[in-house]
Amino acid sequence: MAARGGAAAGNKICQFKLVLLGESAVGKSSLVLRFVKGQFHEFQESTIGAAFLTQTVCLDDTTVKFEIWDTAGQERYHSLAPMYYRGAQAAIIVYDITNADSFSRAKSWVKELQKQANPNIVIALSGNKADLAQKRAVEVQEAQAYAEDNGLLFMETSAKTAMNVNEIFMAIERLERNMTYYHEPQPGSGAAGRAGPGVVLHDSAPQSRSSQCCN
């Protein structure tokens, strides 16, 4: 069971750099705010450049400090993105389920990360605004198939209702650390961020971890 708060005595402490990418107004900042502070603001101001937030979560005998970079979605800030995803262990690429263009843009981000980011980066795809399902423009099956084809974690989320918000952050962290522990990087390995087909998308009970998982 995950618990929030400061590091417990004797816990291992791991820092975990995570970046959020996606078109403007898809809800990246709202997802971070919900995860970090448990809050939702109906009218969230657009991020300028990038915002930095942290969240500390205790998992078993490990304290994980999320260092989260929430990047601006406007095209004029695109050239700054490598500064934030360089060295990141994970990325959440966000699209709006009511906006098909934002899904196309999300696919562009996946391609960019696969070419330019850390070869072992874990990539998650978040179909946000699931509370607006009646206005859906991107079907779950379409996004699910794309995620499976590209080895991505996938969940639909809602920053407004908190649906799957904590779950997607924690699933990424668990997958990244398990991959770090069980899989040494191989020369000439496949596309960055690929976790292999059939990735389990639902949150599961945390497993015991070695200190080798910590970065």
UniProtKB/TrEMBL annotation:
- Which intervals of the chain are annotated as region Disordered? 183-215
Q: Which residues cross the membrane?
A: none
Where is it found, in Gene Ontology cellular component terms?
Answer: early endosome membrane; plasma membrane
Q: How does it sit in the membrane?
A: Lipid-anchor
Q: Spell out the reaction equation it catalyses.
A: GTP + H2O = GDP + phosphate + H(+)
Q: Which family does it belong to?
A: Belongs to the small GTPase superfamily. Rab family.
What protein does this entry describe?
small monomeric GTPase
Its gene name is RAB5C
